[in-house]
Amino acid sequence: MTDDKHVYHVCGSPTSEFFYELSLIYAKNTILPKGWKEDFIVIEPNGGWRIGHSLSKLSDVKASTEIINNLHKGSLIVPHLFCYQGMTACRDFFEKKLLFKMIGSSGSVMALAADKNRTRECVVQNGVNIAEGGLISEIDVQSLSFPIIIKPNKQDNSVGLTMVTRPKELQAAIELAETFDISVLAEKYIDGREIRVAVLETPEGYFIPPIIEYLVTPQNPIRITSDKLKIDTKGKPQDQALSTPVKMVCPADIDCDLYKEIRSQALSAHKALGARHYSLFDFRIERGSNRPFFLEAGLFWSFSNAGMITKMLRAGRMDIPSIIKDVWECRDFVNKC
Question: What pTM does this model have?
Answer without folding.
Answer: 0.90
